[in-house]
Write a structure and sequence with these properties.
By secondary structure, this protein is an alpha/beta fold. Helices cover 37% and strands 26% of the residues. The protein has helices at residues 34-43, 60-69, 95-107, 142-151, 174-200, 213-217, 230-245; strands spanning 2-8, 13-19, 22-29, 49-54, 71-74, 84-85, 113-118, 121-127, 132-140, 205-209, 225-226. The strands form two sheets. A six-stranded mixed beta sheet has the order 6-9-8-7-10-11, sandwiched between helices. Strands 3-2-1-4-5 form a five-stranded mixed beta sheet, sandwiched between helices. Strand 2 and strand 3 form a beta hairpin. The model has no long low-confidence stretch (mean pLDDT 93).
């Protein structure tokens, strides 16, 4: 079954083609409109099903187009899922977090799983071995931390994101001090939270994903698995679950 998966995040907008659970191709854009969608479909024909998850607004005509041309599913709090949600405020739970939990549980069935998605925000999502999503945490992502220091202070400069090279512990310039505080602090946060989860659930599997996942994968001192497209994979699995259910 070929399907389109559309994930419209705060920073990046992704479109992917899957053949069953196999990711065939994916594109990332800074925006999303009918022209971008049409171009992707023309380059990657054959999909009969589509799922869309969005945390941002998008042109209303796209929803109508997808409904007319595909078996179409738009993620919301009522979407049937292959996992159980124990989160108390289901209506405010991001679809990206749900999708990550679904994919994490499928990747390690019978295990407790923590998914750390390092993007605009850093999200921590925990799903237990009984496939119950319990929640997690949300903190600012690396880029957001750089922008916040510049925005909410009078003189601190905005440091370019770059490729986040290793940062000295003791910065000897203002730029170096900002890099030290943000990069070393974020790394310590992720390591610390991962370790605390593993203390409580010793056989825990930890997955790191998101746009900044490479920074953490190379530097974390806790055992982790990299899965850069976990949200796309989770959305595909949710779509497949609903197709078979229908």
């Amino acid at each position: 079954m070929k399907c389109l998966v559309i994930d419209l995040g705060n920073t990046n907008k992704k479109i992917a083609l899957f053949d069953d659970m196999n990711l065939i191709t994916a594109e990332q854009h800074s925006g999303f409109d009918q022209e971008i969608l049409n171009g992707f479909i023309s380059r990657n024909p054959g999909a009969g099903h589509c799922i869309l998850s969005s945390v941002v607004s998008f042109p209303s005509g796209i929803r109508e187009f997808l409904s007319e041309n595909f078996f179409f599913l738009e993620m919301n709090e009522l979407t049937p899922l292959p996992v159980t949600i124990r989160y108390q405020t289901r209506n405010s739970l991001g679809s990206d977090r749900v999708a990550a939990a679904v994919a994490g549980s499928a990747r390690f069935p019978g295990h407790d799983v923590l998914i750390i998605n390092a993007g605009t925000c850093i999200t921590y999502d925990f799903i237990n071995k009984e496939k119950e999503y319990l929640g997690g945490g949300i903190s600012p992502g690396i880029g957001m931390r750089f922008r916040a220091l510049h925005t909410f202070t009078g003189k601190l400069p905005l440091i370019s994101r770059g490729d986040y090279p290793d940062s000295e512990l003791t910065g000897d310039t203002t730029d170096g001090s900002i890099r030290s505080g943000i990069l070393n602090g974020t790394l310590a946060e992720v390591e610390g939270i991962g370790a605390r989860y593993r203390e409580r659930w010793p056989d825990l599997k930890i997955i790191v994903s998101g746009g900044d996942h490479k920074y953490f994968v190379k530097r974390l001192k806790i055992s982790i698995f990299a899965h850069p497209n976990i949200v796309l994979s989770g959305l595909q699995q949710i779509l497949s679950f609903n197709v078979h259910k229908a």
